[in-house]
Model the fold of this input.
Amino acid sequence: MNQNKNQIRRAAFLTLALAGACLAGCQGNPAVNAPPLTAQQAAQPVKGNITVWSWNIAAKALQDIAPSFERAHPGTRVNVDLTGAQMQTRFMLSLAADVGAPDVSQLQITDAPHYMATGKLADLTAVAAKYQSDFPASRWAECVMNGHVYAIPWDLGPVAIFYKRNIFTEYHIDPSTIHTWADYIAAGKKIVALSHGKTKMLALGVSGLADMFEIFLQQTHGQVFDDAGRIAIDSPQARKALELIREIHNAGITLDINAYGQEWMAGFNDSTLATYPGAVWLGGIIKDSHSKFEGNSTRWGVFRLPAIERGGVHVANLGGSVLVIPKQCANKAAAWAFVKYALCTKQGQLMQYEKESLYPSFLPALKSKVMDKPDPFFGDQPVGRLFARDVQKIWRINRTANWAEAESYIQQDLSQWAAAGMPHDHLLKTLAVSLHQRLDVPMAPASELSQAAPEVQQ
Amino acid sequence: MNKAQKPNVMALRLATYIMLTLLAVVFVFPFYWLFTASFKTQAQIFVTPPHWIPSHLMWSNYTDLFQQTNILRAFFNSVVTSAGSVLLSLFLCSLGGFAFAKYPLAPGNNRMFAFVLGTMLIPGAVTLIPTFEILVHIHWINTYWALIVPGAVGAFGIFWMRQYMGANLPDDLLAAARIDGCSEFGIYWRIAVPIAQPALAALGIMNLIGSWNNLMWAFIVLRTPSMYTLPLVIYLMQGEMSTPWGMLMAGGVFTVLPLVIAFLLFQKQFVAGITAGAVKQ
Done:
């Protein structure tokens, strides 16, 4: 009996010891509760290892600048980690758990608000606020939540029209005469007619509708969410954007293929499509594709995004990234020094532009003469300068924490609308109600949205 | 048995062996492919028609595995978490099974058992987020405990042990132990556990396979490379632009081998445990 009691006592003791050991190892990450980085801390010399999570050419761009950063900051070492599956998911899990996140991470601009809303990113206001005027206002606004800066803009995605010079020359179309979407449609009709339908003006499949809608929403100065975060998609501006999509579709100048699909990519090198409306980074994809086809006779050029009306805005943005520092980063001063070097200096941004074609959002870099360099691929056009024009006028889209989710619902409903032949129905009203129900976000009063669209002038 | 039946029996036996051989080939083939691919180059793995036997052995997949990943640390982590998980699970499930099987008059026994069985209806994926939240709050994320404790007691394990103990543990034996002054925990530890060894071995093997191969939960709770287990290291070898398939296959061999050895060692108990309830005694 006594032996059994002793056994039970031993088991109880072991259990307690185990629980104690567990709890002893259960102290939270002290860096998470540390106060935000101050300007004084940032001014001190930094050292230590900095791990960065990034992908694709963006990661390569950071690897390119890492040696010069390390030379400028002796004692630092930058490790850009672009391996491993599910980087974004792992980052979110690491933020939630306060452990395991890198010192610096790349985020897509559309996803950034979702991460900012977790409250697990370092508040960079004290050290970064002074750079506000160095970035396009719209992009900077996307890095700020509740008045605090949580991210620094990286690359920008100004949109223009990539066109095939050989096709435009063959059908006697002067791209400099295309000022508005009406001009663009007229040029498209001419190309389709003269090519007997062999060449279409652009691809417009269901997967490209959301991008097109976002471009037009920026040009009409519309919103999905208003400044108070309420659903504001059922507005005259959004209606105008839909009308424009319908107009382009009904003009018979589109090819119903999906963006980034095989046919779409093959269209770079044949005569099925005359133009590709796209962000600056599309240029890199076109060049890459062109180089793989020997004897390719396609010659490319770029002209500015047509405006809704003559004298209207010729700019919009698609995509782009930011860099963030998680709260749990133990060496925030070094992490900030790297982010600052990469994104808030002309040297860092231009090095990334020249080596990896990562288009800077840092305005002093856009003013550089590097942007005036003629690009032989685009018939010696100074493409960098063309995209830099009016970036300050890019309309600010209110991206809330549930932006990415909203975007997927918009894409879904636009696809159904297109499949039904783009009818004149209540798509936006239905979409607004559906977003309200799915996201549990209030709708802006109709009276505030029914005001006439503001005059969108250059 | 008459003479006419003999050829029939032979034919049946032959058909059985042919079927078993075919099934064995089907089951062994993925292992064969894994093993041979671990000695091939990236191009050889995907060549058509496939090279069934590598022209020469590419040991570099294995050397890369040890140089480029922290596979030995991952192996250690897998051993610690799997062993911890199996031992804790065997202890708690057998304890629960013993209580349900041998204390039928305890208040609420049947209802409690029905409740435990009812938990089997809850899909595991549903509990992922709440469990993660709990572990975040008690700061167990990125610790061995996160892999060992949450899955330690499963309804299936308790059911398994209850059924075995109910059928194989005579009440008279327990009564005799009580008369001799043995405590209730002593009865469990000294009498029930030794008798339930085949069931424990079978449950242990099943739990070992589950915890050794656990990828999703490990992916969620393990956050730093030093804590990664083998499946996670292999999963994260997949790159954004390319995947080193040869090295990944070598990692697969390294991961599968201990499990195969464990199965071969405990095969007898495993089969005995599985079939224990199938034969009426």
Observations:
- The two ends of chain B are 27 Å apart (CA to CA).
- The mean pLDDT of chain B is 89.
- The CA atoms of residues 69 and 233 of chain B lie 8 Å apart.
- Chain B has one domain: 68-275.
